[in-house]
Design goal:
mainly alpha; flat; 176 residues
Amino acid sequence: MTFFILRALHLIGVVCWFAGLFYLVRLFIYHVEALDEAEPKRSILAAQLGLMSRRLWYAITVPAMILTTVAGTWLMFGYHNLMQEPWLHVKLTFLALLFGYHYDCGRIRKRLAAGERPYSSRQLRIYNEVATFLLVGIVFVAVSRNVGMAFKALGGCALVMGLLVLFLRKKLQGRK
């Protein structure tokens, strides 16, 4: 298998993994909000959203994580002496955080399936942004191969998100 095929498979895995994580937490938000509905709507929505979450988890998110990990490991050890590069250590740190986020999403999915409400929809909306920060950090450090660039990108991302929150808060308060 050539370097470029492995790299393409790694990138495809990353895109699918993050798409799965972003949509999964969105389904969690809808699931928690469905629990506030009256019966029978609550039961119908909770069952459907639980099914969608389970299918997304097992059909897309977990396989994409495996593809990303296998292709990335093969690239890391098979084609370059990357372990000597400081940027790779930062990327691996972000990846450790991403794996933690991934498994925490699995825990939340199981709790929702058991009828628990582990977080509010507002908390889950904030939690969904963790994946955004990890994505920005991973992409910038991998593309630039520069540790400083990754942290500047994260700072810029935090600034933009902060400004959006302030802007949206003022807009929403103006509607009341």
